[in-house]
Amino acid sequence: MGTTQLETVPEPKYWHLKTVLSDALDSEFAVGEILPNERELAARFGVARATLRQALEQLELEGRLQRRRGVGTTVAPPRVGVDVGSEAGPHTWPGAPGDAWHTEEHEAAPAPAPVARMLGVAGDAAVHAVRRSRTTGGQQVASEVLYVPTASVPGLAADVEEEPSGAARARAVLRELHRLQLAGQDRTVELGSARADDARRLDRLPGAPVLVVTTRYLADGGTAAVSVATYRADTCRLSFSDTDAVALLAS
């Protein structure tokens, strides 16, 4: 990558730098190749390191770069298509046949305040929190917590309630949830920053850009469950079909 001094441009300097770097990624770097460190890049382009970081963050957000612990910043691989929903269609409960998520664990704990409000439960009320993960190409690309109030699964067996937290208990919650008639669901997508727990699970740095998909499942005239799924923004692209399903493109 040759030395390039940026001229005065009408757009923000970091945005122009992002365009220059993007062209260089196409012509000079291979997938998986590690970029020079920030000091070298800033010197070559005659910009402050703060400006360089803004450009690199934007390229990461666009899926061109990946920042990995102990490795550095590498050129991201191309994305491949993966369906976020289940093969059974968009109007199914989590854990239905065709669901690509892996059920991992369960705990009983209060839901985050925004989720508690959606569920219509007190902020200190314990709910079932089912943790699930999504993997493609051997890499975990998404982490989800499904929050289910006890009122939605009244038939959960007492012996299951007394078991330690684990995948078996989580699956029991999902099975009981399936007894309800799903009336519909709504979904929102937001850009966010990876919190420590999700960053660890997704092999990202804390604060890395993520896509947060919140799904509200409706039954019996109210909200029966709420899912909060966190996707790697560097490898995922969300799109919507006519059936309101959300599709994921991930590497």
UniProtKB/TrEMBL annotation:
Residues 11-78 form the HTH gntR-type domain. Coiled coil: none annotated. SUPFAM superfamilies: Chorismate lyase-like, Winged helix' DNA-binding domain. It holds the Pfam family UTRA. InterPro entries: Bact_HTH_transcr_reg, Chorismate_lyase_/UTRA_dom_sf, Tscrpt_reg_HTH_GntR, UTRA, WH-like_DNA-bd_sf, WH_DNA-bd_sf. Keywords: DNA-binding, Transcription, Transcription regulation. It comes from the Bacteria. This is GntR family transcriptional regulator. It comes from Streptomyces smyrnaeus. The lineage of its organism: Bacteria, Bacillati, Actinomycetota, Actinomycetes, Kitasatosporales.
